[in-house]
Design a protein that fits this description.
CATH architecture of the largest domain: Alpha-Beta Complex
Radius of gyration: 30 Å
Distance between the termini: 54 Å
Number of domains: 4
Helix content: 10-25%
Number of helices: 11
CATH superfamily of the largest domain: Transglutaminase-like
């Protein structure tokens, strides 16, 4: 066997391994050729516990050694006699994939003893005690991520005597955010604890005026998850050669989280019909999804929407050692054309013309950021990078997005890879309102430059509160720096905003409403402010429709007109009553209520419009613990829910899970009657101490997003 194994094959699987011969004779060597003294290997101790502690990998539920790039780990080799560095010629061989190749980094040789020389990985003899030799090995800072096999080979004049393949001496190499030499290095330890080591997160959703959160079990350390993440790369046929390149791995991961193109992990579904799978709102974490994908040998899991894609991708990235976090962009534009405009067309009566309105502004959209150095870009564009696995648009032929430098988005520098124009539009589009007459002619009646990208958040370090990171993506609207960024974006190919804004009307209108629970009546308030010296008589029509969180409107349930008179420089309010009996029959999956106010000023004939999303708060789910959680002692968890509606809830599914405590447990109920209560109890026996998070979710076709979480301390 040469040091250039597998010259032809281009290995694309970590699970397919090469099993080299135990004895490999040198060409031309006969049985009587002179030999060096014979030394044999009796065993190899990978010192799993000690090494994992030093490499910040002790939380992985895996019996094998797990190390990080560019950090030394130690093994003990036991020989049948004392090792002599001057006489004994011994080398360690580390192989990954079915075609180990030294030039491609899939076959690593580390020499100890006679003839020692440095290769890609460093090796040194640390200590010798009796027949045992402690060896230090340092993987290089850019080496391949994955599972390597270990062989100890004694070289004599006649050939190589190699230890047989032993799964117990296999080990994993991960990215190293603790080491400045690794491209994913992140300087602050508090950031590493949050963005690499935290296995429970918070994903924010709702809408701009009413954000709410759901806990998510990332579970990157749970049993089988590391192998599942490597299996994803294998299923996607990602060449091993590329698996040390953080940019390539992130880009491939973005594509492989969705099932478009490549039978990736999750099937997207925004149809409101989840009968052949699990509703996106029912999931409580990533492990259940990833383990199912691996168990079913790469059959995509049904179903996902944006926060599920982001949660699972976050697990994938953190599991492999990359600092990552889930981002929520409230009022997120989906701009198909890249023209920085979201066009909404109204009919003459103020209702939305759905045949002419193809763009949408999502109430929220979730993506990920991963922290890395970008050697392919100027240094200032390193740091947080956007990566999005929700299949919206293709990039280089596949449904994926990123990595995109957040700083480049803010500066309008959109010529660098990857997908910067699309992300820029998500946070910077203008919403342009048109009115269409009965002949199909349209005219602009209003432009809102502040609606999109209103609030961009992520979980705060060491807190469940959100951190407002809007300023990392964009300058304040209308500021000099904002204008400069837009000019740069236009120089980099974004179409100029060449539409003509309508003249100022001298009147401002705004819709207001409180957040309400599903099934409640409420009042919608239209605030009218006359900023002119003339009297203003405003004819206003309110259109109410149900809207998916993706901004796509469903049925119209309310159409009401009123007239208000406002004196010069004065303000007034117009109230509209909205009853549950109006909107409840039209509710759809994860829906909110979307109101459009269209006004026409009698004195001038000018039109104006504004919109408001009213979030519908789901009913409560409560988690209660009985007994003091202690290691090795039982305690009881009770999840309770009361049906506050006047209709039956059918085919209800309840999930409970907690990383490091229990895997997902499910309970189904055929129905819950109006006013009826269910209590699900579970006995848990902790095996480790510390802070744990219990996560529960109740889901059925008529009520989604019913979640709860409870932090406990196991003593």
């Amino acid at each position: 066997m040469s040091s250039d194994l597998g010259r032809v094959n281009f290995s694309k699987s970590n699970s397919e391994v090469f099993n080299p011969p135990v004895f490999e004779a040198f060409e031309g060597a006969g049985p009587r050729a002179p030999t060096t003294r014979s030394i044999s290997v009796l065993g190899v101790d990978m010192l799993v516990t000690d090494n994992n502690n030093k490499h910040n990998t002790s939380r992985y539920e895996n019996t094998n050694l797990i190390v990080r790039r560019n950090k030394e780990f130690f093994i003990i080799i036991s020989f049948d006699q004392p090792f002599n560095e001057q006489q004994d010629n011994v080398q360690l061989e580390f192989m990954i994939g079915s075609s180990p190749n030294e030039n491609r980094g899939t076959y690593i040789i580390v020499f100890i003893g006679k003839g020692r020389r440095n290769g890609r990985w460093k090796g040194r003899v640390i200590a010798m005690q009796g027949n045992d030799v402690t060896v230090g090995i340092t993987p290089d800072a850019g080496c391949i991520i994955g599972r390597f096999s270990t062989f100890v080979t004694v070289i004599t004049n006649v050939g190589k005597q190699r230890t047989p393949k032993n799964p117990d001496t296999d080990f994993y190499v991960l990215f190293n955010p603790w080491d400045p030499a690794d491209v994913v290095y992140i300087p602050r330890d508090s950031d590493r604890q949050e963005y690499v080591m935290n296995d429970v997160g918070v994903i924010y959703n709702g809408e701009f005026n009413n954000q709410y959160r759901r806990s998510w079990n990332y579970g990157q350390f749970e049993e089988g998850i590391l192998d599942a993440c490597l299996f994803i790369l294998d299923s996607g046929k990602v060449p091993l050669l590329y698996r040390g390149n953080a940019i390539e791995l992130v880009r491939q991961g973005s594509a492989l989280m969705n099932s478009q193109d490549d039978d990736g992990v999750l099937v997207g579904n925004w149809s409101d019909d989840y009968s052949i799978g699990t509703a996106p709102t029912a999931w409580t974490g990533s492990p259940e999804i990833l383990l199912k994908y691996a168990k079913d040998n790469g059959l995509p899991v049904c179903f996902a929407q944006c926060w599920v894609y982001a949660g699972v991708l976050n697990t994938f990235l953190r599991c492999l050692g990359m600092p990552s976090r889930v981002i929520t962009n409230f009022s997120s534009a989906h701009d198909n054309s890249g023209n920085l405009k979201t066009d909404i067309t109204l009919n003459e009566d103020g209702t939305i013309n759905r045949s002419l309105t193809r763009d949408s502004v999502w109430n929220y959209h979730c993506w990920n950021e991963v922290y890395m150095r970008r050697p392919d870009l100027p240094e200032k564009y390193s740091g947080w990078q956007v990566v999005d696995s929700t299949p919206q648009e293709t990039s280089d032929g596949l449904y994926r997005c990123g990595p995109t430098s957040v700083i480049a988005i803010k500066e309008g520098e959109l010529s660098y890879p990857f997908d910067a124009r699309f992300v820029f539009a998500e946070v910077n589009s203008d919403v342009v309102y048109y009115q269409s007459d009965k002949y199909g002619n349209t005219k602009i009646i209003s432009v809102d430059t502040t609606n999109v990208g209103k609030l961009i958040v992520t979980k705060r370090v060491n807190s469940n509160a959100y951190e407002d990171i809007t300023s990392t993506y964009k300058y304040p609207e209308g500021s000099d720096m904002d204008k400069k960024a837009m000019q740069m974006a236009e120089r980099r190919g974004v179409p100029a905003r060449d539409y003509t804004k309508p003249p100022e009307t001298g009147v401002e209108i705004e819709l207001q409403a409180d957040t309400i629970s599903i099934g409640e009546n409420f009042k919608l308030t239209l605030n009218i402010k006359n900023q002119s010296s003339q009297n203003c008589t405003l004819d206003v029509t309110i259109t109410g429709c149900v809207v998916y969180y993706t901004g796509i409107t469903s049925s119209i349930f309310k159409l009401e007109s009123k007239t208000a008179s406002v004196d010069p420089w004065k303000a007034t309010k117009v109230m509209f009553d909205v009853t549950a009996s109006e909107y409840m029959p039209y509710r759809v999956d994860q829906s909110n209520l979307f109101f459009v106010a269209y006004g026409r000023i009698q004195e001038t004939g000018r039109a104006l419009t504004t919109t408001r999303v009213v979030a519908l708060r789901p009913p409560e789910l409560t988690i209660k613990v009985t007994g003091t959680p202690r290691v090795g002692k039982d305690f009881v968890v009770t999840v309770s829910f009361r049906n506050t509606f006047n209709f039956i809830l059918k085919n209800v599914q309840l999930r409970l899970e907690s990383p490091g405590l229990i895997s997902t447990r499910k309970k189904t109920y055929d129905q819950i009657a109006p006013g009826g209560t269910v209590q699900y109890t579970n006995t848990i026996t902790p095996w480790s101490s510390g802070k744990k998070v219990l996560i529960a979710c109740l889901d059925c076709a008529t009520v989604r997003q019913v979640t709860s979480q409870l932090e406990i301390i196991v003593q």
